[in-house]
Each structure stands twice: as structure tokens, then as C-alpha cells.
Write a structure and sequence with these properties.
The chain is of the alpha+beta class. It is built from 6 helices and 4 strands; from the N terminus they run βββααααβαα. Helix 2 crosses helix 3, helix 3 packs across helix 5 and helix 3 packs parallel to helix 6. The radius of gyration is 15 Å and the shape is globular.
């Protein structure tokens, strides 16, 4: 089920499937997370989890901190790839980085039985404040996303 969340005048596209939630690291998400990143990401995650409960009649079995850091990690990877692509003028590196960008842009957050990396995000989620420290500041103003 596809949904659009209107959060603080930003439209965030999300797909809800049983056990998996998909977001895209796109300009709207970057602009939404341009400021107050922690609060806004938890707001988004809470909205998704609330709708998931309504749609599927059960809670999404992903800890909020785990969900949040997975979103941030994908956006950070996308951001880093776009920076490299912008500043490196070697074709084979640009092609390699583009593959990484494409993987980072699709944010698949799944329950343990569907997401082989859930253990990683669960572990990193315990350090949400440190992870936030690594997140690019004012990401929506970086002009890397169209």
C-alpha cells in the first residue's frame, strides 16, 4: 500500500507491505530532514508504525531507533555517493558510485525474518545520538538532489 505522509508541509512517499516498509531517499525526504533531524525522523517513523498497525492489524516489529538509523544510513550513503560523483571526474569511479547511490536511494526497512541486516540496525540503533552526529547538517540545502 502506497502512502504519502504530509509532515510539516513535506510529502514523504512510503510503501507499506507486510513486514517491510519502503521509503526513497529523494529531495522531499532530504528537505524534510534539513533541520530538527532527530525529532522529524522519529515523527515519520511513528506515523508509519501507526498506519502499519491500522493497515495490517498488528505492529511493525522494528524498533523505532533501529528504523531511524537505517533511514539515516541510507541517506548518508546516498549523500556521500553524490558528493563523490560530483567531485571525482574518473568515469569508472562514477559508474561504481552510481550503483551504490541506486542501492542507497531505496530504503527497505524489514522485520528480522525479511531483512538480513536488521541485526545491524538494531545494534547501531542503541547509538542513535552518535549516529545523528554523523548525519549531514542542512542536507536539504546541499543541492545534490533534484
Amino acid at each position: 500500500m502506497d502512502k504519502i505522509y504530509d509532515l510539516e508541509n513535506f510529502e514523504i512517499k512510503v510503501s507499506l507491505n507486510e513486514g517491510i516498509v519502503r521509503l526513497h531517499s529523494d529531495k522531499n525526504l532530504w528537505d524534510y530532514l534539513n533541520e530538527d533531524v532527530k525529532r522529524r525522523t522519529f515523527l515519520l517513523v511513528d506515523a508509519i508504525k501507526s498506519d502499519y498497525q491500522i493497515v495490517f492489524g498488528k505492529g511493525l516489529n522494528i524498533e523505532s531507533k533501529s528504523f531511524v538509523v537505517e533511514i539515516w544510513a541510507h541517506i548518508f550513503s546516498d549523500y556521500l555517493g553524490l558528493l563523490i560523483k560530483k567531485h571525482i571526474d574518473i568515469l569508472w569511479i562514477k559508474k561504481l558510485v552510481q550503483k551504490g547511490i541506486e542501492r542507497a536511494e531505496l530504503i527497505d526497512c524489514g522485520e528480522k525474518h525479511l531483512d538480513s541486516n536488521r541485526w545491524l540496525w538494531d545494534s547501531v540503533g542503541r547509538f542513535v545520538n552518535f549516529t545523528l552526529w554523523l548525519f549531514p547538517k542542512n542536507i536539504g540545502q546541499k543541492k545534490l538532489k533534484n
